[in-house]
Predict the structure.
Amino acid sequence: MTNSPSTPPTQALTGQQLPPELATALQRELKPNDLLIWTGQPDPHRYSKRGLLYYSLFYAVSAGLLAIIALMFAGSEWHIEWQHALLYSFLLSFVIFVVVMAVMPIWKRHAAARILYAVTHRQIIVWTNGFVESSQTRHLESIRHHEDHDGYGQITFIGQPTPSGDRFWMEFLDVPNVRAVETLIHLTLIPPQPTN
């Protein structure tokens, strides 16, 4: 059975079987006669930990600083000494830190389920909750990957520089078996040059 030009295939040569909602979203992004090379999503467990400590500290410190500023301005009216203001700010920062550390992984697992990665012979696609970023593979210069000890990692696509010096830069994050995936995509999009 062949796919008609008006109905691009949503089954990749290899990769992750997509949920129906994401398969439908991908269908809308494919061009006629697009050949899917690979599809996937970030691992939800690993994605939920990405930047967790950074964001928790950021929100906690920001809340603490705002509390210090507010209490300093209101301290004279509320008769709050600066030592107590620091203590209250520290307690607020600690509470914010604990809440963010507890809630953000749940939110990021949900966010990971709304992320789609796809590579066709003509375009690289990152679909994030309805927002689409895509680049043409004909402008691709190189593909790189970073692999962690457990086989997960990220794939980076770097485009050729334009006359203005700009180039596209796209990443697939928390990809399982990242080395094999990168090898497949690399050999398909950038085949080795024959040697004389």
Observations:
- Strands lie at 14-15, 36-40, 115-120, 123-128, 131-136, 140-147, 153-159, 169-175.
- The chain has five helices and eight strands.
- The chain has two domains: 18-41+115-189, 49-110.
- Residues 49-110 form one domain.
